[in-house]
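Are you able to produce any protein sequence you like plus the matching backbone structure tokens because I've never seen that pairing?
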Amino acid sequence: MFRSYSMELAGRTLTAEIGRVAEQANGACLMRYGDTTVLVTATASDKPRDGIDFFPMSIDYEERLYSVGKIPGGFIKREGRPSEKAVLTARCIDRPLRPLFPKDYRNDVAIVATVMSVDQDCSPEVLAMIGASLALNISDIPFTDPVSSVNIGYCDGQLVVNPTAEQRETTKLNLTVSSKEDKVMMIEAGADEIPDALMMEAIHLAFDTNLEVAKWIKEITAKEGKEKAPYTEYVIPEDAYQLVTGFITDARMEDAVFAELKQDRDAKIKAVTEEVTEALTEQLTEMMGEDENIPQLIGDIIYKFQKMTVRRMILRDHKRPDGRGIEEIRKLSAEVDVLPRVHGSALFSRGQTQALTVTTLGAISEGQRLDGLDEKETGKRYIHHNNFPGYSVGEAKTSRGPGRREIGHGALGERALLPVIPSEEEFPYSIRLVSDILSSNGSTSQASICGSTLSLMAAGVPIKRPVAGISVGLVTGDSDDDFIEITDIQGVEDFFGDMDFKVAGTSEGITAIQMDMKIKGLTFEMIEQAFAQTGRARDYILNEVMLKAIAEPRKELSPYAPKIAQMQIDVEKIAEVIGARGKVIKKIVEETGCEIDTEDDGTIYIKGVDPAGIQRAKDMITAIVSDPEPGTIYHGTVTRLMAFGAFVEIAPGKEGLVHISKISNKRVAKVEDVLAVGDKVAVKLMEIDKQGRLNFSMKDAVETEEHKEEA
């Protein structure tokens, strides 16, 4: 018989059902929040995976479209690869949990969160994050820290816990915080230029809310938790460690890690490894036995020694591997227009990290359609993609499509710039940014944000304000107040440090946060210091580098960018513009060479390269939706020739007669002498007779236009 546990969270009931389903998993819980239901399971292998030096945990957040009453589109009527939102949610589940496992745990762990029912007012993402923590805590997997997650919004000047669907429509903040009873484990945020003080207030609110949920998880675990299973520990033998490090010496290792360029550092470490291997392999074999993998042991020892050396240098000596000061940023450069013919391009470099971002503009219809669980998210016109090729880190590997890191970095860039993107009414374009990382040595996502801002301005996109991004790292000592934070971390500082705290924003406030942790949480003092350091760095990057490359968005679009005109018509006239089976709109497209999109509210977007073609399309649509008015000049096409005149079509379905006497001021003997079918002519509507027929004059149209030119 299953057991049910409930608590109130932000005015709604949060329930965990234990023992009802998935009993063969190490830990499982059926989570309910309102009518949202998510099954979360945690399963571990019995033995560690051989030959690895990392913790092999996988997270799958599986969106079942039946949860919102949808049948998947396409020919294959089942869910395919995870959506971008599912990948991002899986990353948010992973980041606060991974640091809390034993450092030497090598068993495979699989956490699967399956969304089975969705109440739009109750986030399945947050529910899955809470469920993952509970499933691990009640399992026999060696995980013992209750972690909770919560979403904070900012609506009508008030911070809101787990905002409803209606509140999410207007919120200026989308903040997700994961924390345990004493420290913050993960921060993920998108914000509309939120000040540091308000962001800290929101994080405090999230922490206090999470504390109640963490206590609830702890109470459930006390009743439902299994005894934790033993696991094979991996500890480097102390005598082997002392032998190798004594041979290398502290001074030699400090010299090896102290290098401005990544290649130089790698070359020095390689040389040290080769010397140790040649000198100590025989002695280590005698010490450890013939069965020991000596090359792997040497690699593990040197990695640990390298890590301890870098951390000691930074924390105690305030000496960074490349010689920079604690808040010193690597050499920066920024340039625009690096590629011809694209709509906008920029190259942003920070040390050995380079991001090339290209902006492409298109019609509104070229935006991305979304078929997910959120009924409010049906599409987006602004898209940001990130590519991370192997050559950027000197690896010889082929591209296999975007991985979870690329998707995560692209989404972070998208979130950071979204608040400054002009509205559809201000700028009726779809916008796609692609950031190609050409070289990587830390902070690639933040370089991408800076390059994207420059690319948008070079393309002539009227962004509200430029956005810059920077990351701060952390090295901790033996106590919570023994720590140091370093600005603009490079790869080695990221690998051996405790945190990668990324913050993007404008001169007015924060637009995005992403925090990766390797230790068991941050104090509020650490978070406040990170905000202060990233704020100072952003101001420097904006004013001293980015704005000197391009001061403001260009007033004109690239000559290679499409031109888009927008017009509004009566909703009841949309059918006339489209025509039966699209006949009318197809004809407009064929005649003008433009692409035309119609919206349900009567908005029409006309996309083309030739301004004359765009104007012609507007004129044709105006003629269709407007009642003909005598005295108005129209531009039409000759459709038929008769002995007494010619018929001219001014819009699909709207045709009138130009009598032979009205063709020219000169005498016309035969219509064929002056006109041919297909000719484009200007006509003036003289009258609409009692039968509704249109009578045009070409000669009066010419005279009217000549008078206008003289005036």
